[in-house]
Design goal:
This protein is an alpha/beta fold. It is 43% helix and 14% strand. The protein contains 12 helices and 10 strands. It is globular.
Length: 296
Amino acid sequence: MTSLTRRNLLRSGAASATLAAAGCVTVASPPARKSLGLAPITVSKELAKDYAGTLRKVGAMGYTHFGFALAQMDPRIPPGPPARDIASMVRDAGMQVGVVRYGLARPGEEQFAEAAAIGASIVAYTAAPVFFQGGKLGTTTRAAFDAWLPELGKLAQQARAAGLRLAFHNHFWDHHPLDGETPLEIIARTYSPADVAFEIDLAWAKLGGRDPLALVEKYGSRVVSMHFKDVAAARGPDMFSQLVAPGEGDLDYATLVPKLDALTDGVGYVEVDNPADGLAAAETGARTILAARGES
């Protein structure tokens, strides 16, 4: 920008402010951008090399929220940076602390206390462990699921006591019936939305045979968070190989996003499970969602 152009802008801005103060004109503020989050798995390789630097790059893409884990899912996995340090880096990068994730490697009450201390409001529960304990990923019995269900209720009570909401995250298996009801339906029938909310992953809903938009519409205000990723069926029969960034698969995000924005205030998080280049996937996802909102 030339000094002349900059000077003209400054003059016009000062004139507008003067007129507004005199009651002669109303200066409209630009509309606030809608929130957009990023799930950490998308850039996990980059975070391992430079956490703060990666977050700064993510913030520059238009992301407003960044979520992260409070503990590992398996105690054998080395822990990442402390949650309070990540929260500080997130804010330094110009973003807000988003949905944080419960892990199995630490007591729940410790994690909820930490989540509240760093300013989080939602803790996501990634998956019911019973779907990993059978002979095949994503399979269990109704009896095993029913036996696990009270554990979810116990965690929901702990979350509420800490001033937080617990949100259950769906995978493809959560849409396959167990003796006539899907796991998601069982949870929704057993617990009130105030106790257990939902974080709906659009791609896993699609791979589970559900219409993602209809699913969000069905559960309404119970949906407090979403994961935005895409499904590219042409990549082969393996579900995990089909998971790509929004805009690279078969889901019509240009149509989905405006409708989802009208249905829920829940923040959508771009998530790509195993991208070759995490920052490129994050950029593609942000560009797709922002374009769908007319904000690119």
